Amino acid sequence: MIFSYNWLQSFFKQKLPKPEKLAEILTLHFAEVEEVKKVGKDFAIDIDVRPNRAGDCFSHWGIAREISAITHLTFYPGGEKVKLIEDKKLKSGDFVSIGVKDKNTCLRYTARVILDVKIAPSPKRLQERLITCGLRPINNVVDITNYVMLNSGQPLHAFDGEKIEDKKIVVRFAKRGEEIITLDDQRCQLDENVLVIADSRKPIGIAGIKGGKNSGIDEKTKIVVLESANFHPQVIRKGSRALDLKTDASLRFEHGIDPNLTEKAINQAAYLIQEIAKGKVAKGIIDFYPKKVLPKIIKLDLDYLERLLGVKIPENEIKKILESLGLKIENWKLKILTVFIPTFRQDISIPEDLIEEIGRIYGYQKIPSISPLTLLKVPEKNLDLFWEDFSKDVLKEMGFTEVYNYCFFSEKDKEIFGQKNLIELENPLSQDYKYLRTSLIPNLLKNVQKNQKQFKEIRIFELGRIFLAPKKEKRMLTGLIFSKEKFFEGKGIVETLLNKMRISNLWYDQYQPTPEDSELKIWQKDKCAEIKVDGEEIGFLGEISKDILENLKIENDVLVFDLDFEKLAKLACEEHEFRPISPYPAAIRDIAVLVPRETRVEEVLNVIEIAGGELVRDVDLFDIYEGEALPEDKKNLAFHIVFQAEDRTLSSKEINEIQNKIIAALEENLDWQIRK
Amino acid sequence: MAMKKNQLKLLKNQAKEEIEKIKDLKDFNEIYNKYLGKKGKIVAILRSLKKLPKKERKKIGKMANDFKKFLEEKLKEKNQFFKEKVKEKKEFFDITVPGKRPLIGHLHPLTLVKRKVMEIFQSMGFEVIEGPDIENEWYNFDALNIPKDHPARDLWDTFWLKTKERLLLKTHTSPNQVRYMEKNNPPLRVIVVGNVYRHEATDASHEFQLMQVEGLMVGKEVAVCHFKAIVEEFLKKFFEKPLKIKLRPDFFPFTEPSFDVSVSCFVCQGKGCPTCKNSGWLEIAGAGMVHPAVFKNSGLNPKDWQGWAFGFGLDRLAMMKYKINDIRLFRSGDLRFLTQF
User: Least CB-CB distance to B132: which of A32, A376, A473?
Assistant: First the structure.
């Protein structure tokens, strides 16, 4: 909010610090000054007044009080003198009456009537102050209402008294179907959520937000009805949102203002209209104020103050600070203070609020920095985060680069990838971020699409959350390889990762799609597998379907592994035992088996391992050959078989026996042929 | 017999000359074979010994052996000389050919920064926790003393979900203060890390999805002075530079008093530069003393406990650390960016 330096100066007889210096001390003790700008002979000071202080500091008066508390300069809250002269022959009540339908929506309604006003441009000084604060001068009466608002924080409105039908002002909710054209020519459709100021027949203003054109001041106006009201913050907020209309007035009302302010503000405005627009002020103030707001009393324990801030502030300083802020110390017994809180400080309601006031004016920079005395305790280890870091490191070591993607999907993502159970956003930022993501795969593929021009090979992964309706969220670890020879590299990556996490019993299952399976759209059907640990599926491995690659214009095949990280973290284990290195030599024999093409390597491996027994330390497939010199429907599998015992050197006789046993077992299958 | 003796002498002189004349390895091998080879002169002499009478055999034999030793020594010297020469000889070897790098991956800068933050706080006894991204209004707002239909809520622009229950994407990590205190009794020290979401337009310094870190310390006498010490220690360790901090008043509904933490600009050491917009200070975190209402909403009696909480953006911290000028790079998936870390 913008404040005028000269205006602030008018509350003081002594000179204020220079604008930059003032900005610095306000930032340190009150709120951040975002900018100081020279405007003519004045300076515009932009202060980021926080919402809790809007009630009293969306005004020059409030800021001046803060300056006084910080600088110790004497504050003259009256500012300019108000000498209101009421015309005893004219009675306000003869020109307007006020009716409030619901006293919970309008806490106070104060009105005054000024007659015989001469509408003209306002004086230069007044115009300049408005301009400094970013407001456009209109005419003397309207400018005066704005001026008083900027000065006191109380929004005011001026009606043309002759345009109010039956001289009746009614505060009520609008009826569905009613509409109003505002002062700035906007047509607003009203409904039961919007509080209006109406005359006997129609709305003439939107309460606390904007006046209506039908009752506005124009050059012919003679009778001015001034409104200085206090509306319920939530009512104004709701109406302002419903109409999507924010104004200087609605901003102040929705933050809550002191209801006791209306009278002071309306008198100042009436006085200025009397002086500037040469009006006659009718006798009497019309005031609807059913429930007077009273000051609060708060007890403050000085020991608690010291314990919370961690600094001992001298008692006379505490007294000075509270008083300079306009708070009154009613009683001081030992270390307990009874503080009287005037109604303009609606934000102060608990002792901690007072501690903040004392702390910030005293200066947070004066609080020392002291290490806490606490128990020397090793914090609990967070295993979820531990395994996250662990697996990220393993993938990084294997050449993968970590990416972070947005947690959102577009409508197009939903369709291309055939995703279900999506959670939709009520207010998406744009159509690109309409849903929460149900898989990490689509955004990773988009990463490839974006990078494929610069990088021939891409290995990336993400460990992040996915979201499933109704409100489930879980972590996935998904990696992608964009290069040649992907499938078995991907398999090897998964195997190494799980091995490092000490997860055993990993196996792959041919994917068995169910008819309604959405996964079907993502994978290339013949090149994908379920990744299982014991009986449980923990993820999926496969190449991405050509349709999707075409759709995303990805120029090469892509392999993806998609792991349920919640399951991985649960299965992972830190315990690991060393296996003694056998001092006895290992012997290697080779076996080549000619098998039908559809035979899976795993079947052959199983036979070798079972027949070989304990002394076969390792079986290693080193060649698969199909083609020339072999029958068309056959392939040749070649294995190294490693024999080793823990307690002795195996003799060739022993090895031959096992080898023969393996050969015999393999030959039991009549389609398999041992190549000798 | 005298012949033999003279012959040997002559041969020795001849050999001496020849050895001296050796110019290269080829010469060396030739001479070596000529004298010491299997069909060389020495072998021939030794073989001829047996034809001599015993007495002479001994004498000539000794001479022959001396000759052999002499040859071996001379040739060894020569050989050494050649070895040295070969060592000295410069072959053209281009060390500027680029090294062959192994394939390695890269962790995301936010992961690196998150780890560093966690490590420092863990070493000061803080436990690290996470929370859900999907929150309800109670934890995200009400429990934190942010009432419905109050302008204070406007400080957090919120993404709402189309769900049966009214749910949202958490706008800050603070809901986990309440979630944690509901289940754990003070004294406590805890750090929360997680995604937060803000419904706002993006530019080089604004993002709608961010990572945040929240700290909470509660005890009998945990005060502002302790907050200053811990946060200063953290920042010094994080930036590995001497620096100062500054607190100025701010407002958060869930802390009272509330403040904003700035750190002296480590680019210009507080003198003023473009990074700190000439102020000498960089805003880094929001903080304050836990509001009694938050204790109450977490099932704790505010009369028994006091403490502080703070929150800062990991993205911003990473930007400061690595001098990254556009926050949108983090989630761009651009490998030209990611492979730099």
Answer: A473
The residue among A257, A352, A423 with the most chain B CBs within 10 A of its CB, best to mutate, is: A352
Q: Are residues B141 and B190 in the same domain?
A: yes
Query: Is A610 contained in some domain?
Result: yes
Domain check: are A348 and A399 in the same one? no
The minimum CA-CA distance between A347 and chain B, rounded to whole Å, is 11
- Shortest distance between the Cα of A395 and any Cα of chain B, in A, equals 7
* Dist CA A642 CA A624 (whole Å): 18
Q: Which residues of B are less than 8 Å from A32 in CB distance?
A: 248, 250, 260
CB-CB under 8 Å, A378 with B335:
no
**Chain B interface, best mutation among A47, A57, A402, A450, by max B CB count within 10 A:** A402
Among residues A259, A288, A317, the one where a domain terminates is A288
- Counted domains in chain B: 2
Q: What is the pLDDT of residue A440?
A: 96
Q: How far is A285 from A293, CA to CA, in rounded Å?
A: 19
Q: Are residues B84 and B115 in the same domain?
A: no
Predicted confidence (pLDDT) per residue in B239-268, tens digit: 998 889 999 999 999 999 999 999 998 778
Q: Are residues A170 and A265 in the same domain?
A: yes
Residues of B in contact with A53 (CB under 8 A): 251
Q: Quote the CA–CA distance of A469 and B335 in Å, as a whole number.
A: 32
Record: contact B105-A254, CB cut-off 8 A: no
- Which residue of A237, A308, A362, A424 to mutate against B (max B Cβ within 10 Å)? A308
Q: How far apart are CA A396 and CA A392, in angstroms?
A: 6
Secondary-structure percent of chain A, ordered helix, strand, coil, rounded to 5 = 35, 30, 35
Judgement on whether residues A261 and A332 belong to the same structural domain of the protein: no
Give the whole-angstrom CA distance, residue A185 versus residue A121. Answer: 21
Number of domains present in the structure of chain A? 5
Q: Are residues A516 and A650 in the same domain?
A: no
Amino acid at A374: T
Q: Do B164 and A427 touch (CB under 8 A)?
A: no
Domain final residue pick, B88, B122, B151:
B88
Which chain A residue shows the shortest CA-CA distance from B220? A307
- Of A61-70, B26-35, B192-201, the least confident: B26-35
SS3 of residue A357 by DSSP: helix
Q: Do A211 and A94 share a structural domain? A: yes
How far out from the chain centre does Cα A345 lie? 29
CA distances from A1 to A25, A33, A63, A523, B259 (A): 17, 9, 11, 56, 20
Q: Which domain holds residue A545?
A: 383-571
From B132, which residue of chain A is nearest by alpha-carbon distance? A473
A-to-B residue pairs, Cβ atoms closer than 8 angstroms: 227
Q: What is the CATH number of the domain that holds A352?
A: 3.30.56.10
pLDDT score, position B92 = 86
How far is it, in rounded angstroms, from Cα A126 to Cα A44? 15
Asked if the structure places residue A581 within a domain, the reply is no
Residue A440, Cβ density class (10 Å: 0-12 exposed, 13-18 middle, ≥19 buried): buried
Cβ contact A31–B164 (<8 Å): no
Tokens of A348: 């102060």
Which CATH number belongs to the domain containing residue A521 in this structure? 3.30.930.10
Please tell me whether residues B31 and B117 are part of one structural domain: no
Reported pTM: 0.86
Indicate if the pLDDT at residue B116 is higher than 70: yes
pLDDT by residue (tens digit) across A519-528? 567 888 888 8
- Whether B96 is covered by a domain: the verdict is no
Give percent of chain B with pLDDT exceeding 70. 99
Task: Note down the domain range covering B231.
Answer: 109-338
Taking contacts as CB-CB distances below 8 angstroms, the residues of chain B near A311 are: 224-225
Interacting residues of B331 by C-beta distance below 8 A, sequence separation 6+: A404, A405, A406, B207, B209
